[in-house]
Design goal:
Layout lengths: L1 E7 L4 E10 L2 E11 L5 H19 L3 E5 L7 H20 L4 E4 L1 H8 L7 H12 L7 H31 L5
Parallel strand pairs: 1-4, 4-5
Antiparallel strand pairs: 1-2, 2-3
Helix pairs in contact: 1-2, 3-5, 4-5
Length: 173
């Protein structure tokens, strides 16, 4: 059993989602957004860091999963996003959590089955996979999708390693 904290970073809105994985079963624990309603970037980064630290204290996750930086058309936006990611990652590392990063395309492929899926498709699939009564807010849904992706990737890695172990022993179950 593991608790995964998924983060969809943003300098103004950082989505978060927390799930519990027990084998192949996923359970929703919480989600939402850290909203930074201040203008200067250093204050926004402080709020992101403090918010992530608070989530770590509240949910006691075992793993931290975050979306990788993508190439943006606007270099200034990409730099701010990178700094927001950095603040979140530092909070996780200071909390003693292992950090895993996933590309947006991989997250969409894992959750929706299409790497080019739009936000509404991600929301719909997250709702179905976690048996939620309604679609989560878009940034929170993206964060939950990142956590779900980590569960699938780690489950597949476990299956591959056990298959290799069985092959080394001379049999395949």
């Amino acid at each position: 059993m593991a608790i995964i904290l998924g983060i969809d970073p943003g300098s103004r809105i950082t989505g978060y989602g927390v799930i519990r994985q027990s084998g192949r079963q996923l359970a929703y624990l919480g989600s939402g957004c850290i909203r930074t309603k201040v203008d200067d970037l250093p204050s926004r980064l402080r709020l992101i860091y403090a918010g992530i630290c608070e989530l770590i204290a509240q949910f006691q996750p075992d793993v931290f999963a975050i979306e990788q930086v993508f190439m943006a058309k606007n270099a200034d936006s990409a730099l701010k996003l990178g700094q927001a990611r950095g603040a979140a990652i530092v909070a996780a590392v200071n909390g003693g959590l292992p950090v895993f990063e996933y590309a947006a395309r991989q997250v969409k492929q894992t959750v929706v089955g299409n790497g080019g899926a739009d936000k509404s498709q991600v929301q719909h699939m997250v709702r179905n996979l976690l048996k939620l009564p309604a679609n989560p807010q878009a940034d929170a849904a993206d964060a939950l999708a990142i956590a779900i992706t980590h569960c699938h990737v780690s489950q597949n890695a476990l299956q591959i390693s056990s298959t290799r172990l069985n092959l080394v022993r001379g049999r395949l179950r």
